[in-house]
Amino acid sequence: MSYLLSADKKLRGRTRKGDFKMKKTQGLSFVVLALFLVFTIIIVGFGCGSESAESRIGTVDQIEITLTLMPESHSIDASATITWTPARIDTFFFLLHNGLEIYGVGVFGGVATGRLDYGVGESAAAQVSRLTGQETEEPREFGHLRLYGLGVEAEKGRPIELSFAYRGEIYDSVSVPEFSRWQIADETTGLIDPKGAFLTPGTGYYPLHPGTGSLATFKSTIEYPEGWEAVVEGNIVTSKPGRTTFDSVQPLDGSYLVAGPYKLSRLDADGIEIAMYHYPQSASLTGRYLGASASYIKKYNELIGPYAFERFSVVENWFPTGYGMPTYTLLGSQVIRLPFIVGTSLGHEVCHNWWGNGVLVDYESGNWCEGLTVYCADYLYKLEESEEAAKQYRMDALRAYSEYIVRGDDEDMPLRDFRERTTAGTRTIGYGKSMMVFHMVEQRIGSEAFWEALREIYREKQFERTSWKDFFETFERLSGVELGWFLKQWIDRPGAPGFAIGPVQFEGDEDGGLIEFYLEQVQEGNPYKMDIPIRITYTDGSQEDGLLHDVSGKIYHARVLVRAEPTKMEIDPDFRLFRILDQMEAPPTLAGFFATVNPLIILPATTDPLFETYSSLAEAFTRKGGEIIKGEEIGDERLIGRTVLHLGNFEQMKVTRDGATFTLAGATLDGANIAVVNAWRDSEDPSITHLGIWGESPEAIMPLGSKLPHYGKYSYLAFSSGRNIVKGQWPVEDSPLKVRIGG
Ligand SMILES: [Zn+2]
Predict the structure, then answer these.
(1) In this structure, are 391 and 448 located in the same domain?
(2) Model confidence over 25-64: pLDDT tens digits?
């Protein structure tokens, strides 16, 4: 199965640095890659197993596409010219969408030795079935992709051009995804509609060579109806109404085409064209998006290095997406209206033009680009806000890992194996842990060397596949700090350390003395090696921060000299280490509920006037499992050891009510149709989270089914007619890593 996992990054992950996922497309490119493996196997059969796939199959270096969009008939008429350098194989294999009919083939610089065969490689197809476990009735088709082969006689190692003309319908309608905690992108493999066109490499709208994964440059000329605009990666070569030619500038894994009846707003930012392709009703948003995009580009120009392209675009999509392609980001109509997107996701997607789409990811050795983009965007914005906001962000990353992986049902994996986010659990690793690893590197080698190393990597490795190892070598070179063990510990190994403090003793007086204690690493497996932050608070209220250097044993005997009489000692109080968070270090949150696949849901009594409404809500929360019981059926024994959702039980909400006025966590709740949400820990077992939901009316309650999963990091929430009006976390009073000393 590791083949299949490593396969799925190949086509899709490389170009699109999206942060919401698109399931179907992924599955398809996964098939494409499975094919790649099969070809490799077959060709190995010819001998010479040590050769790379590239040296057997050759490379595709350039793809030139001319494509006319016909939205009314959901179709295209297109031609693609592929520059192929054959190696040992004399058949050009490719996949194309099965709605497309090929009506012309040309070979330049070589001789076609046979007709274009649909279904060449049936044995390959059989092996794909075997590898994927997918039975196909028609072994030449993989989902919506059809496999072709064209026999060609050509000089090995000399590029030739293959041209294909094709036309037909591409219309995989956008389906509303089943209820999911994280997925907000609707699913389609690609479609052409009067509302807009969305075509990805996985769509197969141009011939996909399932060969070597080599990068190709793209030149695309797109024709579209009057009143439409089209966007492809890279710079615009020529443009006139109804027709635009794009040049990818740099080699890509694949090309994404988006088009629609857009209005175009533009801004010149120091020679870089910032554009927004939007629907007429979004005109009022353009000022904010253009201005913010320009300032993000300026920010990263200064922080990392000059932007590599002539333009950047924000493109509105009529179904929900949040993708970042080179030179543009595709955001759904609802997404761009969310007030926080300009301040967070937009900057993140712009930053991917440096990390991911600028310096490319060598996926074989793990995807580092999400963690680094988070560190240079989402996290950095928090740091610019305040140290406290940054600390909170780190704690949230630790807590998400602890909830979803350590105490939840999601699987752990080393960063080396992270390809892309598919679940909340993979997100906590590929984004959260990865971001924390960059933070720990910065702590270890110092900010100056850290940022200088990032600038150097951007300079030296732009548009090259780059691995974790490349980063660590640069960090080492610029800092002189040896990090080989650090890479092994944090990139190759799954998991995280967890800590417990043994009895703490202080020998001394008001002039200081010695604190002694045992620090135990309580996680399974070998101990980690770390510098561990420690904070001492003195009787006069002053504080002192220090480090326990190179702590490495399972049990570490710590001796700390202090300058006055201490009252408190804290281990990693600012959450600077990636570690398992003790439950009591973090407030209870909704994530504690959503991390469980088998919750118990308690409805109010059947006599409750909102019983039916709560029942519908309960259904929404149990599509992946769980048990629903009526209020009358409740008995204590059923609650033991279960994560519980309490519906319609006002007493548990920590809300006060005075007539029509509600108060939650000190805030007065304004508006009609009030609903409140509250998370708390089980009094017997703090690892168990309880969640309560109460609302005034069906209009208050029903919107929560789809909304709450996006509020995982909060302890309490209030909504008015489905609109969030209050959110927050309950304060943390005490934790096992904060120890009082003396008196
Ligand atoms: Zn991202």
Answers:
(1) yes
(2) 333 333 333 333 333 333 322 223 334 445 566 788 999 9
Q: Are residues 526 and 608 in the same domain?
A: no
592 CA to centre of ligand 1 in angstroms: 24
Distance 377 CA to ligand 1 centre (A): 10
Helical (H) or strand (E) element with 315:
strand 311-317
Written as one string, the DSSP assignment of 206-227 is S-B--SS---BEEEEEEE--TT
Rounded distance from Cα 183 to ligand 1 centre (Å): 14
- Provide the CA 422 distance to its chain's centre, in angstroms: 8
The neighbourhood of ligand 1, an ion, using CB within 5 A, equals 17, 19, 370, 373
Find where tokens 């079935």 sit.
129
Residue-wise pLDDT for 503-555, tens only, equals 899 999 999 999 999 999 999 999 999 999 999 999 999 999 999 999 999 99
The answer to whether the CB of 10 falls within 8 A of the CB of 214 is no
d(CA 351, CA 354): 5
CA–centroid distance, residue 708 to ligand 1 (Å): 22
CA of 176 to the centre of ligand 1 (A): 23
Looking at 273-277, 322-326, 531-535, which range is the least confident one?
322-326
The answer to whether the CB of 405 falls within 8 A of the CB of 428 is yes
Q: What is the CATH number of the domain that holds 554?
A: 2.60.40.1840
132 and 235 both lie in a single domain: yes
Q: How far is the CA of 504 from the centre of ligand 1 (A)?
A: 43
On whether the CB atoms of residues 461 and 358 are closer than 8 A, the answer is no
How many Cα atoms are found within 13 Å in the side-chain-facing hemisphere of 103?
A: 9
Q: Which residue has the tokens 């046979």?
A: 114
Residue 10 is which amino acid? K
595 and 710 belong to one structural domain: yes
Strands 145-153 and 111-112: antiparallel
CA 323 to ligand 1 centroid distance, Å: 8
CA of 341 to the centre of ligand 1 (A): 13
Beta strands 627-629; 655-658: pairing state: unpaired
User: What is the C-alpha separation between 406 and 394, in angstroms, rounded?
Assistant: 17
Bridge partner list, 166: 78, 102
Distance 12 CA to ligand 1 centre (A): 13
How far, in Å, is the centroid of ligand 1 from the Cα of 309? Answer: 19
Report the alpha-carbon distance of residue 490 to residue 61 in Å, rounded: 36
Q: Is residue 288 part of a domain?
A: no
CA–centroid distance, residue 27 to ligand 1 (Å): 20
Range of the domain at 535: 499-581
Q: From the CA of 483, how far away is ligand 1's center (Å)?
A: 26
